[in-house]
């Protein structure tokens, strides 16, 4: 039987997992990940991988599923940071006069 | 007695909690949170608050402690996003002539 605590736990797991989706979408949309911390998503990804191992050892399916999805999303953000997070972000609001990296706003 | 699974769980909880510290520090240092998603940290914060409630109901101290710290850090990032994440980020590299967003290579 599903207790109130179980329901809160499932809601909590769902929210802390799906929350990464809008961050992925924002980076893809703006093509900018300058303000994203490598260290945050790096350490977080290792931590989530450990949670996944913990869930596998305990054979705890909800822990395994939630952390597998979160790991994919967190690593996706790391890949996007690598792609779009260079130190000089491309201009986003208009063209500049040549001191930028050559990419212009469309 | 501490099992291997316990040790992995503690390491996982520590890493997914402290990972937020470098993101806080990065925003404070660069004074920019443009690329941070409101939705990510908003949904994540609600989820962590639910985890905190779950831990309180079950009287699970590690769950309570880890999520209390994470909640403070995630809400701090939301406050910093409000402070530094406006659509036009403040100039960081020097004054510009008006058509770009004010950021120049140093």
Q: Helix and strand string of chain A, N-terminal first? A: HHHH
Biggest sheet overview of chain A? none
Unreliable stretches of chain A (pLDDT < 50, length at least 5) are none
Q: Structural class of chain A, please?
A: mainly alpha
Amino-to-carboxy terminus distance of chain A: 55 Å
Number of alpha- plus pi-helical segments of chain A: 4
Total beta strand runs of chain A:
0
The coarse overall form of chain A would be elongated
Radius of gyration of chain A: 18 Å
For this structure, the quaternary state is homodimer
- Average of pLDDT of chain A: 87
Per DSSP, what share of the residues of chain A sits in E-state strands of 2 or more residues?
under 5%
Of all chain pairs, the largest interface belongs to: A-B, 56 and 53 residues
Helical proportion of chain A?
Answer: 55-70%
Describe, in plain words, how this protein is organized in 3D.
The structure is a homodimer of 106-residue chains. The longest helix of chain A has 24 residues, at 61-84. In chain A, 67% of the residues lie in helices and 0% in strands. The termini of chain A are far apart. The model of chain A has no long low-confidence stretch (mean pLDDT 87). Chain A has 106 residues and is mostly helical. At the A-B interface, helix 1, helix 2 and helix 3 of A face helix 1, helix 2 and helix 3 of B.
Which key phrases capture this entry?
homodimer; elongated; 106 residues; mainly alpha; 67% helix; 4 helices
Can you give me a brief rundown of this structure?
The first copy, chain A, is an all-alpha fold. Chain A is 67% helix and 0% strand.
């Amino acid at each position: 039987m599903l207790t109130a605590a179980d329901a809160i736990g499932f809601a909590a797991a769902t929210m802390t997992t799906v929350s990464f989706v809008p961050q992925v979408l924002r980076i893809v949309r703006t093509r900018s990940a300058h303000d994203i911390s490598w260290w945050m998503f790096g350490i977080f990804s290792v931590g989530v991988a450990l949670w996944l191992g913990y869930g596998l050892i305990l054979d705890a399916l909800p822990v395994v599923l939630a952390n597998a999805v979160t790991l994919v999303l967190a690593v996706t953000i790391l890949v996007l940071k690598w792609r779009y997070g260079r130190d000089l972000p491309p201009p986003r609001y208009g063209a500049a006069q040549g001191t930028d990296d050559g990419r212009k706003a469309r």
